[in-house]
Amino acid sequence: MASIEEVAREAGVSITTVSHVFSEKRPVAVATRRRVLAVADRLNYRPHRAARGLATGRTMTIGLHFPFEGDPLLLNPFFPELLEGLSAAAAEAGYGFLLIPASLEAKFPLRQALNEGRFDGVIIADPTEDSTLVPLLLRHRVPLVTAGGRYLGSPQVPWVDNDHRGGLAQLMAHLEEQGYKRPALLSTKDGISYARDIEETFEKEVRARGGEVTIVRADDQSEEQAFREALRLLNQPRRPDAIVAGIDRQAVGVLRAARTLSLRVPRDLGIASGGDTVLARHSHPPLTTMRQRPRVLGEVAVRLLLTIVERSAPPENRILPAELVPRASTRRVRSPRAKARRPADAAPGPQAPQPGPGPGPGPGRASPG
User: What is the Cα–Cα distance from 79 to 221, expressed in whole angstroms?
Assistant: First the structure.
């Protein structure tokens, strides 16, 4: 990797000018800035993290908080993929992470870290409604962004999320097209925006079709809790003919319940979920799911936070478009539209995902996978 001296010499400017281009501490002419950045890119120059911190007065560190720990964090493929996106974007921008534990009662000197300004901003993944960290950060005026969900306690906290409402609306239309009449929703009691979004949308979609709303809330997002709730649902006299699980991990528990009761999927029971994680792709049968793009969420969250930290720019909430991924767990009949598009002698293939209907709800518009 080239040095700052080499970049300055090649670009025909001073070392100070190169420093100002990357620190953005002093204005630099547009043409000069472009020339320096082009040379830096060609020579593969990246400013040293410590030196950049000294030049800008920043720590070059981002606080990272996952409100879950143990199995909910480690066994949900959504979070490792989100972390990959966060890490890649932060490293590209020259930042490192300081992990803030899920339990603020843990031996972590959070207040000391805040008082000493150890991080330039914080990203919280899928915040819960009763979060004690968010109000604390707001009081200390720490730049903050949430990823994969919104903080329900205040619409003023910037966020990056998926269009869960649009995705579930697509899923409900798909279930209707496949002949399902009595869908049920398996949600959770986590107090996260994702649960609220899918519950409100599910109720709206079912009522619009003249159906009876059935929503159950498991104590957590585990496969075991989903298995128990699914057994309870499926042992009712008028059982649902489709179950929409909040996340893929829950859907695996629903699949287990179906096998326990000798129900055929998708003929006797349709099963769908949210996430499109490895669990959905490799389950048997593969799960119909709403794609959530955790890696992209992480990358966008870092970029949004850095616009606040480095440019003091007003934040703009970002929502990623919905995408339904139909698979064998709900596909009972071929779509008439798909038949019309395909020549009569063509071999059947997978149904293409339908485009999202656009952003969900307004100022506060929606984890986890």
Answer: 13
